[in-house]
Design a protein that fits this description.
single chain, 296 residues, mainly alpha, 67% helix
């Protein structure tokens, strides 16, 4: 009689039954990922941009309130705001802003047309560069504010010398930035355009002018700020209307609140123009990848 462990020849050995897996789930080991990182608080860029002016305004208010800054030296922001409401109610401030705006706009348009014509001629043609660029560099060294007496002799004491001074101040930054942008166009791109079959006008339209656009927009920002700066000087001489006219009258009567108000209006107008150029740059240069700074 064979034992249960013996194997009969010709038959397969008996298999041992494996235990069935347990239906209860095995415990899952959790791996800790360490301490959680705190998300940094992101402040909107608009708030960060306004932090500097708001801080300066707060320091001005505190020094005026505590008497550190006497009213005879500089009026407090409360007095300036009160005078702004008063002059707006009487209509003097809106009329002054409108008169100054007309002068700045007219002078800017004249200076922009002249600068564009000169920069294109000097930038696209060697003969134009030889004739124009050296002369512009020479005239740029002359302080344009010092030309006010000469402009009065040439154009009289009406609106013409004021507009001419603004136009002259606008011409230089626009000319040099557009001219520099044209001459900084990549020579390899120009050669590639020629190999693609572009003629001279095609190269100017599709290669050279787009390359000069960033420099032209930078020059536009400088030109707009220079236009308001030139207007400050122009309206101090024989003006019968405008923001500079209010400043001249306030200077005679030692009204520091009106002087500060006029300077603040100039600053706000310049800031609005700069903001408009920034928006224009974002739209026109959307195709151009540029460095926008690091961090949030």
């Amino acid at each position: 009689m064979s034992s249960p462990n013996t194997t009969v020849p010709g038959t397969s050995p008996p298999t041992r039954a494996t235990p069935a897996p347990s239906s209860s789930p095995s415990p899952v080991k959790t791996v800790s990922s360490g301490p959680r990182r705190r998300t940094a608080l992101r402040v909107p860029r608009g708030v960060r941009r306004a932090a500097g002016p708001v801080a300066l305004l707060a320091v001005w208010f505190l020094t005026s309130t505590t008497g550190v800054l006497p009213e005879s030296v500089l009026a407090s922001p409360v007095d300036v705001a009160r005078r702004a409401v008063e002059l707006t109610r009487t209509g003097e401030l809106p009329q002054a802003v409108a008169a100054s705006g007309r002068r700045a706009a007219t002078g800017f348009l004249i200076g922009a047309v002249v600068a564009l014509a000169l920069s294109l001629t000097a930038g696209l043609f060697r003969l134009g560069e030889d004739v124009i660029d050296a002369s512009m560099g020479m005239f740029r060294a002359i302080p344009w504010v010092g030309l006010i007496p000469l402009f009065i002799v040439w154009f009289g004491i009406d609106e013409t010398p004021k507009i001419a001074l603004v136009a002259l101040g606008v011409t230089y930054p626009l000319y040099f930035n557009i001219y520099g942008g044209i001459r900084s166009a990549d020579a390899q791109l120009i050669e590639a355009g020629r190999m693609a079959g572009l003629g001279r006008l095609g190269l100017i339209r599709y290669v050279i002018l787009p390359s000069a656009l960033p420099g032209a927009l930078v020059g536009l920002r400088y030109a707009l700020s220079t236009a308001w700066l030139a207007l400050v000087f122009a309206e101090q001489v024989n003006a019968d209307a405008g923001i500079g006219y209010l400043m001249s009258n306030a200077q005679q009567y030692f009204q520091t609140d009106v002087i500060v108000l006029c300077l603040a209006v100039y600053a706000v107008l310049g800031l609005l123009c700069d903001f408009a150029v920034r928006l224009l740059s974002r739209r026109l240069l959307a195709w151009r990848a540029s460095f926008e700074g690091e961090g949030t």
